[in-house]
Amino acid sequence: xxxxxxxxxxxxxxxxxxxxxxxxxxxxxxxxxxxxxxxxxxxxxxxxxxxxxxxxxxxxxxxxxxxxxxxxxxxxxxxxxxxxxxxxxxxxxxxxxxxxxxxxxxxxxxxxxxxxxxxxxxxxxxxxxxxxxxxxxxxxxxxxxxxxxxxxxxxxxxxxxxxxxxxxxxxxxxxxxxxxxxxxxxxxxxxxxxxxxxxxxxxxxxxxxxxxxxxxxxxxxxxxxxx
Length: 227
What we know:
Oligomer: single chain
Structural class: alpha+beta
Number of strands: 8
Radius of gyration: 21 Å
């Protein structure tokens, strides 16, 4: 996978079309996320193997959904986990580096849970970052290395994707239909699971109408393409 990511990087350097660059950037981000997930699974598997035999028998659930917010001093992540307040303090751990975090919840209703976020947009103060266990939630407080610094996204990968999307939208600003398509794509990429379902449904309905219109000679809507 690391070789694939390196190949994406090489292709990005050669690409000239903004559309091609956008596709390559998205592909590279997906590969990098998969690398992170595999590294997290390997690390947690090693910890479980070194621990009790019960650890190795529990199923590991990879967490991907979370909310986040920020204040002047902290970036805050909120991970929903039903019943997590019943866990022992030592079973809910977070490992920090200057640009990443890894959450590991052990033995929650017979399962382990893991979340990894790498390539944070800006640096954090490891010593002053901490977590709190709340009712059905783990809250992680990342202390900003530079207080007052604004994080418009959480990770550097998301930042690159956002820049590519914004660039593509600005280039299509004279074409309202293309701009609308890009806005919908941006909303889809940035949205939560519910938002994605709604946009995907709307897009599918438009595609169905486009095909029907084309068959009837109406045309016009088939230029939307695939999401």
